Structure formats: C-alpha cells, structure tokens
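This section describes the prediction task in plain terms. A model, or a person checking by hand, is given the sequence of a single protein chain and must write out its three-dimensional structure as a string of tokens. No templates, partner chains or ligands are provided. The sample shown here is typical of the held-out split.
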Amino acid sequence: MSRSLSKGPYVDDRLLKKIAGKKPAQTGTIKTWIRRSTISPDMVGFTFGVYNGKQHIDVLVTEDMVGHRLGEFSPTRKFVRHGGKMQKEIEAKAKEAEIASAQAAKAASDAASTSAKK
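The expected answer:
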C-alpha cells in the first residue's frame, strides 16, 4: 500500500547522511538494513548493500528506480523451481534432443566439407 501524497515519500535520514556530500564514484557499497526507504534522485549512482535477511545484496541505483523502495531490488525468498521429478525428466529430454541436433548439424557440416575437398 502506498503512502499518502500529503505525507510524501519516506526516505530514511540515516541513508541521506551516509550519501551527503559524497560522490558515487568515491564511495563503495553502502550497507543498509533499511529496506522500506524510498529511492530519491539524490541516491542515483550509489551502490547500496541491501540486507535480505541473510546477506547484503548490491543494488546499483539508476534513474528508473527513483520512487521505488530499496527492498524491491533485494529479494528475501529464493526461488528454486516448479516441478520436481517430472520437470527434471522434461529438461533431460530437451537436453538430449539439443545434443542430438548439434551432432546431426556437425555431421552434415563434416560431410559438406569432405565433399568440397574432392
């Protein structure tokens, strides 16, 4: 749910103090646990290490990110994959088909090169 327009965006003061008077090229990664802070135009170019509950994930702030929250770019859940045993079988068959088509293409190119030499 977004914040009221009369209140304005929430930008944490501690983050603004960390970037105040600094240039993005001079500073390294700025570690932060403040995922709820809105990205302001002052933050463009800086790299923030946003904590996801386990580690800090580097987020390079660009102009497109202004108005979004820092936490949006540091996912807290790891997606493994859908499927299971059936999905693995489907992927194995697709890989076998890819290898077979690559071998057929190689054989065709070898046959064409040998006929060109004659």
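For orientation: The chain has a mean pLDDT of 88.
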